[in-house]
Amino acid sequence: MLGNFEYVNPTKLYFGNKSLDYLQKELLKYGKNIVLIYGGGSIKKNGIYDQVLEILKACDKNVVEDAGVMPNPTSDKLIEGAKIAKAHKADLLLAVGGGSVCDYAKAVSVSAYCDDDPWEKYFIRMENIDNPVIPVGCVLTMVGTGSEMNGGSVITNRRVNRKIGRVFKEDVFPKFSILNPEYTLTLPKYQMVAGFFDIMSHILEQYFSGEDDNTSDYVMEGLLRSLIHSARIAVKKPQDYEARSNIMWIATWALNTFVAKGKKTDWMVHMLGQSIGAYTDATHGMTLSAVSLPYYYHILAAGLPKFKRYAVNVWNVDPNGRTDEETAKEGLERMRAYMEEIGVVMHARELGLTEDMIEGVADGTFILKGGYKVLSRDEVVDILKASL
Ligand code: NZQ
Ligand code: ZN
Q: What is the 3-state secondary structure (H, E, C) of 249-295?
């Protein structure tokens, strides 16, 4: 049965190769003081920085920059950003970059006026927000996380090797996001492909849960088929606008809260991947690709009907003449072949994970209960070992 739910998504999207034209209109809704947040400099190389700055100047904004947001943004950087935003009395945080920049901007938005340590309050104790929140706007340059239209914010504390995601409510979602597929064309292939797998994992983590007859599962099968199709094209021809724009749109729908409504979700692949990321600082999507098949094989028997459905509806496996288990396994094997074809990392050791880290990574893995099997700590260790 489809469960009961509320649904609202407050983020306004502008999509397409002319979408930056709408930035000015959005900026005029906010006061003068803007913090321009970006990463390690890709936006300076590809010209997006100059385009955005020109619009900020045309709007006569008082801009300070908070640059150097790293992939897997840290709690130390968050403290620095919160101070900048508070000192500047920011009316808007404008995030220009990938999921890391966008996630970080959301974390700064709730932390600037937080009197406590924001890592402890919002990421460890998961308390409700009781201080003013600064609005966030986003110009997206990397596809994958869905951060452009959700309340997710993932922060890493390097001192304790913990990477923790918090899902904030609608008041922290970006007020607007500008999605120009052309901005993603300068991504190195490794990042592009990691983003493709991140999208796939977001969909699968919501799909592999529950047995109900649920409309979301049909939507997700469609998204997966479109993603697989377009990613194959993009890997061969990275400059293919049609494929890249389709993928950008799939990424947003994969994690803008819509497909999760009324159904259970799993998220164990992300819990495992995030904990690997906390130890290795590896690229997010690649941590997911390394653990996915070991995890799915581990839970296959517990979720057999859904794995069979996945094989048939997503991978076109013919169930005739096969047992359900054979059909399900053939689906996972076709997924493996696809992963190898697009070039994701299949072994966590390539990300720097070593045998001696496994106990610590297992300790940092939150065990969730929404999937087909609630893992024990020993099973987490087994899956991590199998992912090496
Ligand atoms: O820092 P710069 O120089 O900009 O370079 C970035 C970075 O090195 C580069 N890049 C981005 N756009 C580019 C570009 N290079 C050339 N051309 C462009 N157009 O790509 C690198 C990776 O960027 P990053 O933002 O780190 O990648 P991604 O978008 O995958 O974000 C990863 C972070 O998002 C979190 C992850 O855990 C990780 O911390 N997630 C956030 C989620 C959410 N908000 O809901 C959910 C996800 O599951 C994920 O956990
Ligand atoms: Zn992800």
A: HHHHHHCCCCCCCCCCCCCHHHHHHHHHHHHHCCCHHHHHHHHHHHH
